[in-house]
Amino acid sequence: MVVATEEMAVYCFDTLVSHFTGDQPPAPAFEDGNHPLFVTWKKATNGSEPRLRGCIGTLEPRQIVSGFKDYALTSALRDRRFPPIQSKELPSLECTVSILTDYEPAEDYLDWEVGKHGLIIEFTDPDYNIRRSATYLPEVASHEGWGHIETIDTLMKKAGFHGSITESLRKKIRVTRYQSTLYTMHYGEYVAYVKKNRGAAPAINGMPVVNGFKLGR
């Protein structure tokens, strides 16, 4: 089974840094394959809890090299919930790469474990008679401190449902559960990796991008 690795997170940082430099990112140091995957960016300032800055991926298998390259940028620059990440934010970022595995239908909306399973829900909106769907990665519910019902209810809202959530409606939801492996890397760890393996810190316009570095672009 393919698992998320340090090199995958490095490649996502390489891709984002290269976006700002206009260069091509270095070749990935991991083998290709076909798997569902996600890239999540978070930002921490002044020692605060990291806050979501972008998260996009695919629930369908795709080549992981091109997938991480595409979603590193899509999640950083085109997540419509957030403004695009700027280069001056790099020192505050952390990147989490996720490889999704073990898809299986749940018996009902309660048939999953907090912290172990991610969820895909599908249901018919009774107010508009349209199909809605949404997903949470496995770490979301445990990070937020949610139980089963709160997770399902917020996921229905994420899917675009704004009506009254009843027990009978919850029972009509089709739930697919899945698991994932993930790897999280802070920008400082990325810098250390690049220095160790390439001999110099990441640079934009010839200037190293390290903690405290400010770039106006």
TrEMBL record:
SUPFAM superfamilies with a match to the protein in the record: AMMECR1-like (SSF143447)
Domain of life: Eukaryota
Ranges for domain AMMECR1: 1-194
PANTHER family listed in its UniProt record: AMME SYNDROME CANDIDATE GENE 1 PROTEIN, AMMECR1 HOMOLOG
Protein name: AMMECR1 domain-containing protein
